[in-house]
Amino acid sequence: VQLQASGGGLVQTGGSLKLSCAASGRTISRDNMGWFRQAPGKEREFVAAIDPWNGSTKYTDSVKGRFTISRDNAKNTVYLQMNSLKPEDTAAYYCAADSTGTASRPYEYHYWGQGTQVTVSS
User: Fold this and answer.
1) What residues form DSSP beta bridges with 18?
2) pLDDT digits over 77-108, tens only?
3) How far apart are CA 80 and CA 14, in angstroms?
4) Residue 12, class by beta-carbon neighbours within 10 Å (0-12 exposed, 13-18 middle, 19+ buried)?
């Protein structure tokens, strides 16, 4: 499966962005899907994941209440709505598909998209 992430950009503190991750090659309707981010000089960190069967979601603590992950299986696409953005949210954001285990560790995912840069100015 190929993943294409988009929607990043430059936004002021408190602003919003919506990232999209469009999949091609096969359906992702049965895959755990995740979003990760990586800031310069830091390790890639988990942001959010969504289950394929009941749509249950999980988030890292720092984005709870501000970010929302969702999926549209008809469009083979996963989204990350990001509100109340902070400068510390600045990073390259990556979507990933087909995880095993907790769905919150990078090594659990088999497919990755390219990053989309999110920059939050103070």
Assistant:
1) 81
2) 999 999 999 999 999 999 999 988 889 999 99
3) 16
4) exposed
